[in-house]
Amino acid sequence: MLFYTVMKPLVRVGLRVFFRRLEVRHRARLRLPGPLMLCSNHPNTLMDPLVTAVQRHQPIAFLAKSTFFKNPLLGAIMRSGNCIPIYRRQDAEGANAPSAQQLAASNEASFGRCYDYLERGGTVMIFPEGTSVSERRLRPLKTGAARIALGTEARHDFKLGLTIVCVGTNYFDPTRFRSDVLLNVAPPIVVADYAASYHQDPDAAADELTEEIRKRLTRRLVIGRAAEDDQLAQQVERTFGDHLNPDDDPTTLYDNFQLSRTLLDAVAWFEQHDAGRLAALRAALGTYLASLEKYRLDDDALDQGQRPGTRLADYLNLILGFPIWLYGFITNYLPYKIPAEVAYRATKDTEFIAAIMFGVGMVTFPLAYAVEAAAVQHWLTHDWRLTALFVLSLPLAGFYALGYWQTLRARLRRLRVRRLPAATLATLQGKRAAVLGLLDEARAAYLAK
């Protein structure tokens, strides 16, 4: 509990740094008084509980698979962070694997801890899918969350007042630093409403409540169907999202969420009603994106009409900002680079990348800043006030360096466009125009259906 209390403010700061935007739709629903159960999808392992936990003032107890507790150090951290182990049959391997009866007994003890926590007015967070896979889909839900909720209320004759709030966690680029995440929170489910069903048939009541949880999560998630259709929808959104949604509100991620769902629905509709048009779009877009990759360009670089600012102002900003970029680069490069290197060397599983990057970054940045501050204090300033100003400058310079580099890369891509042979540029623009034409025709056909 002490670890949870101490780490929560640090995690909140870390998440504000890691994500460019962390938006919560209907935040008040996450702050309802307990007893409360939070149910969420699970695409990004340890990041999923963190992005929700920092939104609620009271501590949350999390159900986590027992494999996280096998490592003594990680297990101690998990327990001090209010985590309760759940034992799954697929995790029990080897000659010393526990029997089905032992697993059931262990889970019954974990359920008992959940009962006690909820009966004291606490909050428990469960991921009913039972596993974490980084795909835009909702896997079949286990009934454990419903059984815990119904069992807790049954012990109090359904007068405890337990509610369930479903949280749709939508990552727009789950493995990338400074990406976006939207928490789309559903209205609460009153568990006492299932009292009659429970008294008649507890198992049927658990199935009924699980189905309601599934429906509420489904309505608040971007859910792909076939992998190739999801890939097509993401390619269209990332390349031509501004064209398809010119009235996008820059103050909210919800417009992006709605566009993602609409694109997936449209792809599914065309698969059924006009597969030829969809195949033509897929081929044209694939050819266009391959051409952009060949010349190390992106669509924004080719769309010269979207070039921000004047050429003189652009170059002045780059020239005058270079010393600040260099300072930020030198002081932040190692703590910025190490987390990604560790994550991609440690695992090939996409759903673990962000969690490892975040965890390692929580160590590398404070450690690097402490070492740099000590060096500056010892060899340069000899004055703690000047050293404190130096430390304050480090994250500011780091953010500036990151933005400067992104701007510089965009300018270099535009410069490459201007240096292309006229015939090559005309070919690329022709391919782009063909894709936009197909998109406009498809949009008209879909809206007219």
Number of separate structural domains: 3
Oligomer: single chain
Order of helices and strands: HEEHEHEHEHEEEHHHHHHHHHH
Tell me the helix content.
Answer: 55-70%
Distance between the termini: 56 Å
Helix-and-strand structural type? alpha/beta
CATH topology of the largest domain: Glycerol-3-phosphate (1)-acyltransferase
Query: Biggest β-sheet, characterized?
Result: 8 strands, mixed
The fraction of residues assigned to DSSP E strands is 5-15%
State the CATH class of the largest domain.
Answer: Alpha Beta
CATH superfamily of the largest domain: Glycerol-3-phosphate (1)-acyltransferase
Molecular structure report:
By secondary structure, this protein is an alpha/beta fold. The chain folds into three domains: 2-218, 3-Layer(aba) Sandwich (Glycerol-3-phosphate (1)-acyltransferase), CATH 3.40.1130; 227-295; 306-419, no CATH class. The protein is 62% helix and 10% strand. It contains 15 helices and eight strands. It has helices at residues 2-18, 47-53, 72-80, 100-119, 144-154, 195-200, 202-218, 227-244, 254-273, 275-294, 299-302, 311-346, 350-381, 384-418, 422-447, and strands spanning 19-25, 36-40, 60-65, 83-86, 123-126, 163-171, 179-185, 189-190. Strands 1, 2, 3, 4, 5, 6, 7 and 8 form an eight-stranded mixed β-sheet that branches. Helix 3 links the parallel strand 3 (60-65) and strand 4. Helix 12 (311-346) packs across helix 14 (384-418). The chain starts with a helix and ends with a helix.
